Amino acid sequence: MQKTVLNLIQQQIIERTESCMALACEHFNRQFLMPTIKFNQRGKIAGSARLQLNELRFNPVLMQDNLDHFLSDVVPHEICHLLAFQLFGRVRPHGKEWQALMVQVYEVKPNTYHGMDVTKVAGKKFAYRCLCGPVGLSIRRHNKVVRKVQQYRCIKCGNQLVAA
Ligand SMILES: [Zn+2]
Ligand SMILES: [Zn+2]
Description:
45% of the residues lie in helices and 15% in strands.
């Protein structure tokens, strides 16, 4: 992905964050500080909110392929974590306060799972095999097999997996 294209995507995320914050200020008739925005979220997570720092992190890889979903859902989702913290203090991450903010301020369904394709960001799989075919194990599981602390069975047939 070219740098200029990514910057355009980042710009849209930043603008959406600004307009969402403006909506919150209007809704509650008070000021909320614009959060710091970083594009360094890794892994399968779309975004995250650092409550104490008033900081949002977005996943640059998922962002590129799912910009519409980020603008419609992920940005309000993460902002609502910040708002819930600033309005109500430490509450459950996706509890009733957060859900109410999603619905009342942004009219977004309070979904917790993003359902985006994560194949590009999924961790490397290690090749194992079973009588019924090849199976991929995560690095965490692979390390357990190597250290001989755990063995894994095929979920289809129940046979023990061996390294391919
Ligand atoms: Zn969340
Ligand atoms: Zn099998």
